[in-house]
Design goal:
- This protein is an alpha/beta fold.
- The chain has 10 helices and 7 strands.
- Strands 3-2-1-4-5-7-6 form a 7-stranded mixed β-sheet.
Length: about 270
C-alpha cells in the first residue's frame, strides 16, 4: 500500500516551482521588480511571501555587506527549500503569516512583494503590517499579475484545469490575476496610508524551448499537483493538450513557446 505523505508532496511542489517555473516564467520579473525597487547597498529589506527565495537571491546580488534580507512566508516547505538554496549570512528566513510579520517596527528600508498581494485574504491588514515595519519614508515595491486577458498562460491553465478538475480549479487559476489592474492596487495602497503611490503596467515575454515541458512543470508546481496526479497519465495529457491548444498562437513550428505576460507593478513610501 502506498501512503500519501503531505510533507514530501509539499517539498516536491517547492522543488518543481523553483527548478521548472522560476527560470523561464519568474526570473525576468524578479530582475525588473528589484531594478524598480532600487535598494541602497546597505538596505534592510523584507521579501514578503518570499516562496523559494527568488526575489531574496536577486536582491542579494545588488546589496553590500551591511545589508540584510528577511524572507517571510507561510509555507514551511517553500522556506525550507529557500534556506537550502541560499546560505548567505545576509539573509534570514521566517515562517510567519503576512498579517503578523516577526520584525520590529520602523526598522526596514524596503519591503518587496512579488506575486503575493492578490492571494492575501486580508490585504489591508498585511499592508498595515508592512507600514509598521518600514521606517518613515521607507519604500514598498510590489508586483501582481495583470488582467487575465493580457496573460495567456494563466488563462490557458484556467481553461484546462477547469475542464478536468472543475470550477474551483478554474477559479483558483484565475485568482493569480485577482487584482489585475492599476486601480485596485492604487486603492489598496492609498487606503493603507502610503504616500507617493504609483501603479503601472509592465509587459514582458517569457520563452521556453518546449511548450509541453513548460506545461508539465507548471502542473508539478501547482498546489493541486496531487489532484492532477490522481487523474493518471491520460488526464494529465488532456490538460497538457488543452493548454497547448489554448496557447497555439504563441507556439512555433518547433514547439517552442514565446508568450507575453503583463504585471501591475506598484511603488509607495511609508508616511514620514
Amino acid at each position: 500500500m502506498t501512503f500519501y505523505d503531505p510533507d514530501a508532496a509539499a517539498e516536491r511542489i517547492a522543488v518543481a516551482y523553483d527548478r521548472r517555473l522560476v527560470p523561464w516564467l519568474f526570473e525576468h520579473w524578479a530582475q525588473r521588480l528589484v531594478t524598480i525597487a532600487a535598494p541602497a547597498l546597505s538596505a534592510q529589506v523584507l521579501d514578503l511571501a518570499c516562496g523559494t527565495g527568488l526575489l531574496a537571491r536577486t536582491l542579494l546580488d545588488r546589496l553590500g555587506d551591511g545589508a540584510h534580507v528577511h524572507g517571510v512566508d507561510a509555507d514551511p516547505s517553500m522556506l525550507a527549500y529557500a534556506a537550502r538554496r541560499t546560505s548567505d549570512r545576509r539573509v534570514s528566513w521566517h515562517h510567519a503569516d503576512a498579517t503578523r510579520i516577526p520584525i520590529e517596527g520602523s526598522t526596514l528600508d524596503l519591503v518587496v512583494c512579488n506575486q503575493g498581494l492578490q492571494f492575501f485574504p486580508e490585504p489591508t491588514t498585511v499592508l498595515a503590517e508592512v507600514s509598521r515595519v518600514l521606517r518613515p519614508g521607507g519604500r514598498l515595491a510590489l508586483a501582481v499579475w495583470g488582467q487575465l486577458e493580457h496573460n495567456p498562460w494563466p488563462k490557458a491553465m484556467s481553461v484546462a484545469l477547469g475542464a478536468e478538475l472543475g470550477d474551483d480549479a478554474r477559479r483558483g487559476s484565475e485568482s493569480v490575476c485577482g487584482l489585475g489592474d492599476t486601480e485596485p492596487v492604487q486603492r489598496l495602497l492609498t487606503g493603507a496610508g502610503f504616500d507617493d503611490v504609483e501603479a503601472f503596467e509592465v509587459r514582458l515575454t517569457a520563452t521556453h524551448p518546449d511548450v509541453r515541458e513548460a506545461i508539465d512543470g507548471q502542473l508539478a508546481a501547482l498546489p493541486s499537483a496531487g489532484a492532477i496526479d490522481a487523474l493518471g497519465p491520460h488526464g494529465r495529457n488532456r490538460i497538457i493538450d488543452t493548454m497547448t491548444h489554448e496557447l497555439r498562437g504563441w507556439i512555433d513550428a518547433d514547439d517552442a513557446l514565446t508568450v507575453p505576460s503583463t504585471c501591475v507593478i506598484a511603488t509607495a513610501t511609508s508616511p514620514t
